[in-house]
Amino acid sequence: MDNINENPLPFGGGVRGEGPGASFEMIAKTFQGLENVLAEELTALGADNIQIGRRMVSYTGDKELLYRSNFQLRTAIRVLKPIKHFRATSADEVYEAVKAIDWTKYLSVDTTFAVDSVVYSTEFRHSKFVAYKVKDAIVDQFREKTGSRPNIRVTNPDIQLNMHIAEYDCTLSLDSSGESLHRRGYRQEAVEAPLNEVLAAGIVLMTGWRGETDFIDPMCGSGTLPIEAALIAKNMAPGLFRQGYAFEKWSDFDPELFEQIYNDDSQEREFAHHIYGYDNNRAAVAIAERNVKAAGLTADVSIQFQDFADFTQPQEKSIIVTNPPYGERIKPEDLLGLYKMIGTQFKKQFVDNEAWVLSYREECFDAIGLKASLKVPLFNGALECELRKYQMFSGRYNDVRSEGRQIKTADDRRQMAEKRRFKEKRAVKQRFGESDEEFEKRFERRPRHFDREEDNRPRRFNREEGDRPRRFNREEGDRPRRFNREEGDRPRRFDRDGGKSGGFKGGRDFKRSGGRDFNKGKGKRYEG
């Protein structure tokens, strides 16, 4: 990657006195629902003091980890380096707290900067107003000290600042990423409403797939899921195709360290299987092909024009991960017909494999007609979606269980519990018409009806048997029964004996090889 730090800032983007191995706090932002996946990525990178929050994960590490976080994290939107944490109950207190910072450590009068603010507070209702107060505090300090001031630049500033306020808790940070990390750099074109790259990578990681089988997206659109899956299967860093990061403009930027990270391919691996993307829109297929070619993945990813209704059983073990249309631009009757067809194809043409579907309409999932073995809540933009897992078996579900095959893992059960809590909170918010922030505030401060200590907990009855109300006595003759135990008198749903049914790759590899042919695919995948 070219070094864009041609005119380094005279006073630094990092704090003076920090050595190359000094540890400091960082915050990685992500989508709601991907926090645990991001925490697992940070653990693999060697981060310390990992704490999961709402749409973010905080951790500590050194400058190398800051660079690696931006370059290698697949589920992070941006990486922040906090400057100051403080509490403020008014705009004036925000102004004074920001002005108290020695801004000569971060800026100069020749520096351009911008302030982005995110506010969840009943006191601070307008994020732009907060940004203006931060800007005024910085400018006023420079005017008082030097008689001059740094300039504001909305696009491509030298220093990007981020102010986050949750009620009265404020965090002012340096934004080390600049442009959002979902902008990988390989996307040449996109279909309407494309799937975000960060969300696509998070979905693939949540399935547990790491390249052990073939990967299929029967409705691939511009190819985001197949491309992110290929990067995961080959363990290629998502930042390979990106043009630059905000930290490259900081005065303490270490170009040699970043070049070493950028050119380190020791963790990349061979991918022995193949990835297939299909779509019934020829324009989308053409766009996906160009994006795959720009990522240098034509040897691993094949894009073809095909309707999912014509899908046939794969010859090899495979996984389907797809994001079908949600119905924003499709007639309801056509939408339900689409999801019904998806369920039919899963049952008939994807036996003994698993499929994952991201959608947000309950009626769409109902139209699939299959029981999901896992439901995970995810946000796709402002839409409260779900990622559902379907396991297709050639025999009966109970037969599979009797053979000892695991249906749900411990992680599956944990995610199911999180999903239940998510739906309970959503129901309460909808009932009272509250925003997420209003709900969290009320939820955290709600009075408790009892302490959890056993002796202080009111009880509906004493545990003494004689004092306990009962719906019936234990005497067999007094107990109501739905049926007698005689086999002939017991209603049955079924008999127990019966059955139930290549071009420019870009980035580092292009520099090494001088270009190579990536257009050699593996040919046709299915027969019939």
Spatial gap, N to C terminus:
46 Å
Strand fraction: 15-25%
Q: Order the strands across the largest sheet as they lie in space.
A: 2-3-1-4-8-7-5-6
Low-confidence stretches: 1-17, 400-404, 445-463, 468-472, 480-486, 489-528
Oligomeric form: single chain
Q: What structural category arises from helix and sheet content?
A: alpha/beta
Count every beta strand, where a strand is a DSSP E run of 2 or more residues. Answer: 15
What's the Cα radius of gyration? 28 Å
Number of discrete helical segments: 14
Helix content: 25-40%
Q: Name the shape in a single word.
A: globular
- Summarize the helix and strand pattern as letters: EHEEHEHEHEEEHEHHEHEEHEHEEHHHH
Largest sheet: 8 strands, mixed
Describe the fold and architecture.
With 528 residues, the protein is of the alpha/beta class. The N terminus and C terminus are likely disordered. It is built from 14 helices and 15 strands. Helix 3 runs parallel beside helix 4, helix 5 packs across helix 6 and helix 9 runs parallel beside helix 10.
Give a brief description.
This protein starts with 23 loop residues before the first strand and ends in a 15-residue tail after the last helix. 31% of the residues lie in helices and 18% in strands. The protein is built from 14 helices and 15 strands.
